[in-house]
Amino acid sequence: MTHDDRSKDSRVADALRQLDRSRSVSASDLDALTNRIVHEASGLLAQRRAPDPAWWEYPAAWARTLIPLGALTAIIAAAILVRTIAAPPALATNSERAMSDRLLLSLVTPVEDHVSPGLPRR
Amino acid sequence: MSRHIARAHALAVRVLHQRDDADDLVQDAFLAALEHLEAFDVSRPFWPWLARIIANRGLDIASSRAVRYTESLPDDLIDSRSGTPLDGAVRREIIERFRRELALLPPRQQLIIQLVELDGYDVAEIAGMLSLSPSTVRWHVHAARQRLRDALSPLRDGGP
Questions:
Q1: CA of B86: how far to CAs of A25, B72, B83, B90, B92, in Å?
Q2: Cα distance between residue A90 and residue B83, in whole Å
Q3: Measured between alpha carbons, how far is B158 from B68 in angstroms, rounded to an integer?
Q4: Is A121's Cβ below 8 Å from some Cβ in B?
Q5: A7, A16, A17, A42: which to substitute to probe chain B, counting the most B Cβ within 10 Å?
Q6: Is B145 in contact with A16 (Cβ distance < 8 A)?
Q7: Contact B12, B22 (CB under 8 A)
Q8: What is the pLDDT of residues B85-110, one digit of tens each?
């Protein structure tokens, strides 16, 4: 017998058939199985048959959460804004005041005044 | 579905050997087919697609089982042609040996030899079902036949 032999082997087939004889399934068993599958599949089928939701159904579904959340955010933002406007400007410290004076002075002083006296002028 | 249920169940029993397991496998395969219906090419027949799902899922289950399936032989199983009690006992012993040898085959090979010898599937159908090349299927058939024939050798060599 070769690799390509496709013919049935009668002895092997007979032995297999003897072992297989007890496994017949009745029509009623198959019906019961069919009913079981149909029952399990009904949810899946209903889901498939349902039309796709319209675009406005998504925001409508989220409205109960998003509207209070948006209102709360707006109130907090308004409170922070009011506090910021109403607060008096902070007073500058001595060192800050001195630093700003030096900065102002350096801006208004002519450039020539900063040239070292030891260097020749052009 | 009713068109395919008997064939699907027979295939599931071939892979898993037990009725309850086969029922679960068939249900699982039909639901999986329904869930992935988009992947099914409507221009092709449904059965090969379903058979592939059953065979692949069933073989996964069979391979993951630590203990191979065994079942004691029913008393009326042996077809005694010669009639004496001794012949019946010897024949029974040979079939028992054959059954053990069959159970020791790898699940895929076991399935292939049963599909060929009992259900009349051809090599191309089995190759499509198991995603194997036809030559690999032929090799499995050859290897399984060889082992099973050896188990039956006392019958062939002039036994009862």
A1: 33, 20, 8, 6, 10
A2: 116
A3: 31
A4: no
A5: A16
A6: no
A7: yes
A8: 666 777 788 888 888 888 889 989 99
Which stretch of A97-111, B18-32, B47-61, B145-159 has the lowest confidence by average pLDDT?
B145-159
- Closest chain B residue to A18, measured at CA: B77
> What's the pLDDT score for residue B154?
66
**How many other C-beta atoms lie within 10 A of the C-beta of residue B71?**
12
Share of chain B above pLDDT 90, in %: 31
Q: Touching check for A42 and chain B: CB below 8 Å?
A: no
Could you tell me which residue, B152 or B2, shows the higher pLDDT?
A: B152
What's the CA gap between B107 and A63, in Å, rounded?
Answer: 55
Q: How far is A8 from chain B (nearest CA, A)?
A: 6
Residues in contact with B126: Cβ distance below 8 Å, sequence separation at least 6, in sequence order: B112, B115, B116, B132, B137
Structure tokens belonging to residue B55: 């065979």
d(CA B94, CA B76): 15
Q: Please judge whether A12 and B139 are an interchain contact, meaning their C-beta atoms are less than 8 angstroms apart.
A: no
Please list every residue in chain A whose beta carbon sits closer than 8 Å to the beta carbon of residue B113: 12, 16
Residue A15 has pLDDT above 50, yes or no: yes
Of A32, A18, A23, A13, nearest in space to B15 by CA: A23
pTM: 0.62
Would an 8 Å CB–CB cutoff place B110 in contact with chain A? Answer: no
Indicate if ipTM > 0.90: no
Contact list, B79 vs chain A (CB under 8 Å): 18
Max CA pair span of chain A: 121
Can you tell me the distance from the alpha carbon of B113 to that of B134, in angstroms, rounded to the nearest whole number? 14
Q: Is the pLDDT of residue B138 over 90?
A: yes
